[in-house]
Amino acid sequence: MKKKLVGLLMVTTLVASLVGCGKKAETPSTDNGKTEATEAPKATETPAKAEDVTLKVWAPENQIKDGTMDSMTKSFQALHPEWNITFTIETQGEDTAKDEILKDVGAAGDVFFFANDQLNELVKAGAIARLGGSTEEMVKTTMAESVVNTVTVDNAIYAIPFTHNTFFMYYDKSLLNDNDIKSIEGIMAKETPSNVYNFYFESAGGWKLGAWYYGAGLSIYGDSQTDFAAGANWNNATGVAVTNYLIDLIKNPKTAFDGEISLSELAGDHRIGAWFDGSWNYKLYKDALGDDLGLAVIPTFNPDGNDYQLKSFYGSKAIGVNSHAANPAVAVAFAAYLGSEEMQLQRFEETGQVPTNLKAGESAAVQADEVAKVIVEEANVASVMQPTSSEFSSRYWANAGGIATEIRSGALNKDNVQQKLDTFVSTLKVE
């Protein structure tokens, strides 16, 4: 979820009609907004004059800057001579897509990329189309159930997952070895030059912060994540111990803190030992460190005499269709195309994002990839399903990010940790 909203960039491309084979198109029905698949004209039945249509796409910068989106729009057009498509591509971060869409659904992208934890609010606002027909079938039959669940609300599918959304640990092999990185204690104990930081702490607005509390066995809304009467238990003795641990870690002079110093510059200068991030920045770090770049599952930590495995939030990044799309049949067809096996493989080759499509994941290139390997391991041993309820989303994100920043400023300290946690827990209460 870390992908800051970049300034709006518009790239309008008129793609000429190209000769190509026919392909299934999605045509919406009136069945409660559910889209159903119908057969498009076969290549031999291509109409003499293509239908002029427009399609606005909101995509993150990493899908645009190296030509990935441009290539995909052209190959899609080649498959659909029945449409003469004017594509408008606008840069929009996946992490803030929901906020921007809900400002004006009618002005938002017809097709958009977003992080799945935003799905419930998009559904409740009626801003995202329910998928059906062959698109729904594609999602159900080509991806693991755990992935399908990330885009499902009340047994209905609303988007096409295209990559895993979690984070893992990067480290500099010239500073830390395989034994050092097994625990936060090992990372921080390593002797490094005075101008080198051992660890980079980034709360990421609560997304990475949750790993410490969930890792220690704490929860919000119980194990089911929807037991709202249970509230949150982050203010119990374990939660206090975790917070005190974070106070010591964040205040440690060998910890670099997000916003105060550039992570990419530290990595490029071999001045940071370990940090947490996702696959989307792999190329950045690989270019900077080359063979010195190491990847691993996030480590353990010991806040109260017990070793706990940190647990990252697991979700997906997905492609949705605006319920107000001007040309819904084209929008659904393009969204399905962007999430197809072929496009997931192309995206992996060009941007390093690991496919959710099972067959794509079995390809030799993905199997040999170190990022894919660590993401699968992280999902299996060091992750928890990211809560997606609107109750969680409307309360947690607005309040969790303040924990790390208040620790850094001193507003949250060991003298008031219980009081601060009690206040935080009270903000999560569902009446």
Percentage of β-strand residues: 15-25%
Unreliably modeled segments: 1-44
Number of strands: 18
Using only CA atoms, what is the Rg?
23 Å
Which class do the helix and strand fractions yield?
alpha/beta
How many strands, which pairing sense, and closed or not: the largest β-sheet?
7 strands, mixed
CA-based shape: globular
User: Roughly what percent helix?
Assistant: 25-40%
Cα(first) to Cα(last) distance is: 28 Å
Mean pLDDT: 89
Count the DSSP helices: 17
Can you walk me through this structure?
The strands form five sheets. Strands 1, 4, 5, 6, 9, 17 and 18 form a seven-stranded mixed β-sheet that branches. Strands 12-11-13-10-14 form a five-stranded mixed β-sheet, sandwiched between helices. Strands 2-3 form a two-stranded antiparallel sheet. The chain has helices at 68-79, 97-103, 119-124, 133-142, 145-148, 184-189, 210-215, 237-251, 263-268, 282-289, 328-338, 341-351, 358-361, 364-367, 370-381, 390-409, 417-427; strands at 10-14, 25-28, 35-38, 51-59, 83-91, 111-115, 152-153, 156-157, 159-165, 168-172, 197-201, 255-257, 272-277, 293-296, 300-301, 308-309, 312-321, 383-385. The protein contains 17 helices and 18 strands. By secondary structure, it is of the alpha/beta class. Helix 1 (68-79) links the parallel strand 4 (51-59) and strand 5 (83-91). It is globular, with a radius of gyration of 23 Å. It starts with 9 loop residues before the first strand and ends with a helix.
